[in-house]
Design goal:
alpha/beta, six-stranded mixed beta sheet, 12 strands
Length: 239
């Protein structure tokens, strides 16, 4: 068995919609038995819908002896308030993609389409939250490392290695499993990367021997769409 050592500034995070918590309870129970019962890292569960007290108590019980906090991923807003707070351009695009004419006609299980991809709005929201909003959420402000675990990622045996310890000792930025898993072909991706990092990102591959990601081309043609393989999001550790 590998080394297990408690490190400061670590949080376990996951997300649920809120209308059903049974899967999250099972995930926490198994995860506690497999790993966190030894390390006792804080757990933050993001929920779109406010939870009833009984559901909160069940989640806390499943994560003991670790401390558990449930945080809103909507900043306390309702769906209607969130839609109304969008810019006119964003709101118009959302209504078009969800095939409705008024913000009042949108609900979390509305099916919305971007090009050929159609998903329920609650699924699209969790993807947006995990890609963007989670990194700025105040519930994570005091932590340096986040281990993300999907609400349906069930541990089936005790962990023999400590991913947090590996992450910290090797000073990693990202520790992951399952790559590639899907592909991003968003036309705006190149301009976003250029604006944030002042660099180009045209493609990514993994060195299978070292387990490290590397870029495949330093520059892209102006009219080329970056094709970036994705990590499977069900489990990863980030700095």
């Amino acid at each position: 068995m590998g080394r297990f050592q408690h490190h400061t500034g670590v949080v376990i995070a996951s997300k649920i919609h809120g209308h059903v918590v049974s899967g999250m309870i099972q995930t926490l129970c198994l995860f506690t038995a497999a790993y966190n019962g030894r390390l006792r890292y804080d757990v933050v569960i993001f929920s779109t819908i406010p939870l009833q007290k009984d559901a909160m108590l069940q989640l806390q019980h499943a994560s003991q002896p670790a401390r558990l906090v449930v945080a809103s991923d909507m900043g306390g807003q309702s769906l209607l308030q969130r839609v109304q707070s969008l810019t006119d351009k964003q709101r118009t695009l959302l209504l078009f993609r969800c095939n409705v004419s008024r913000p009042e006609d949108i609900h979390w299980f509305t099916r919305c389409c971007a090009t050929s991809d159609c998903v329920r709005l609650n699924y699209g929201w969790q993807a947006e939250f995990r890609a963007t909003h989670v990194w700025f959420h105040p519930a994570l402000a005091e932590y340096k490392y986040m281990l993300w675990l999907d609400s349906d990622a069930f541990c089936m045996q005790p962990w023999m290695q400590d991913p947090i310890d590996v992450m910290v000792r090797n000073r990693l930025v990202l520790f992951f499993d399952h790559f590639p898993e899907g592909l991003s072909r968003v036309p705006q991706l190149k301009s976003i990367v250029r604006r944030v990092f002042n660099s180009s990102l045209c493609g990514v591959t993994m060195n299978r021997k070292l387990g490290q990601l590397r870029t495949t081309a330093p520059t892209c043609a102006d009219n080329a769409v970056a094709r970036i393989p994705l990590l499977h999001g069900f489990f990863h550790v980030t700095d």
